[in-house]
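1st attempt posting a full record on here, be nice pls
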Amino acid sequence: MLNATSLVLAAAEPLLAFFCVLFVAVPIGLAIGAVILRAAISLFNKFAGFGEDHLSRVPEPEMLKAMGIVFITGLVNWVVGFIIGLFGAVALKEVGQPWAELLPALFSLPFSFLVASALLAGLLPTTFVRGMGVAACQYLISILIAVVIGVIFVIIAALVAGAA
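the predicted structure (as tokens):
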């Protein structure tokens, strides 16, 4: 199976590939995540009916703070997912592929949502319930982006198959 780890380890210069990922891919990913977070906060405030001067409005963080929130949330969710994956690997060692990998990932989604909600409540001046709303909007935006990218890939694949 080809993944990012095998690309880095199989590179001609693994250290160069590591630094490229660290100093190029990670900041780009954090910037995209920060834009999604800021859009989710704006969407939540609109869904909740909070105007610009409403006291219950979730404040939109600056870009660097949003990148930090995305980094911390991703790191904590990675740790939680890793722990659930370890328990899942032990509990599901009898189950065949792809279920042995898929079930722990699906099981970790509610925990990931709660962790993101708690971190948003702690890192933004807002409540846990509003953090849940922002996290839900973040999931919604991410799913919509994934669907759009998937549709683009299907269209390109259909065009390539039609041309062949």
